[in-house]
Amino acid sequence: MDWPCSSVSRQYRGLKGIVDGVVLRTMKLGVSTFVPVVGKAISDAAETVLSASLLVKNAVGVAGLVVITLIAVFPALKILAVATMYGGSAAFMQPLGETPIVACLGSLGKTMVLVFACVAGVALMFFFAICILLASANLAVMTA
C-alpha cells in the first residue's frame, strides 16, 4: 500500500511547479489588466522581485554545490592516497619475497580503490540530486 501513496506524492510534487507557474502568470495578467492606472507597473515590479529572488536562490544553491563538492573531494582524495600507499608498499616489498603480507597489501590497495569509486559515485549522485532540486524549484518561476 506504500507505492500508490508515494506515486501520487511524486506526481503532486511534479505538478505543483507547473500549477504555481500558472497561478503566477494569472496573477500578473489579472493585476496588469484589472488595476486601472498602475497595474502594469505593479505586475512588472512583482516580476522583477521574483527574478531577483530566483537569482539569490540560485546563487545560494551554487554556493551549496561548491561546498558539497569540497566536502566530498577531500575524503575521496585521502582514500585514493591510502590506496596508493598500500599499492606502493606492496610493490616495494615484492622483491623481498612473495609473502602473504605482500598479497594482503596488494588486496588492500585494490579494495581501497573500490571504496574510492563508491565514495565518488555517491558524491556524484548527491551532487546531481541537489542540481535536480534546484532546477525543479526554478520551474514555477520559469513557466510564469
Q: Mind describing the biggest β-sheet?
A: none
Average pLDDT taken over every residue? 80
**Shape summary:** rod-shaped
Helix/strand-derived category reads: mainly alpha
Which percent range describes the beta-strand content? Answer: under 5%
Unreliably modeled segments: none
User: Could you give the order of the helices and strands?
Assistant: HHH
Helix content: over 70%
> Can you count the beta strands?
0
Q: What is the first-to-last residue Cα distance?
A: 36 Å
| CA gyration radius, whole angstroms | 27 Å
| Helical segment count | 3
Structural notes for this entry:
- The chain is 91% helix and 0% strand.
- The protein is mainly α.
- Helix 1 (2-34) packs antiparallel against helix 2, helix 1 packs parallel to helix 3 (100-142) and helix 2 runs antiparallel to helix 3.
- It is rod-shaped.
Write the layout of secondary structure elements.
Elements: H1 2-34, H2 39-93, H3 100-142
Helix pairs in contact: 1-2, 1-3, 2-3
Question: Quick gist of this model?
Answer:
The protein has 144 residues and is mainly alpha-helical. Helices cover 91% and strands 0% of the residues. Helix 1 packs antiparallel against helix 2 and helix 2 packs antiparallel against helix 3.
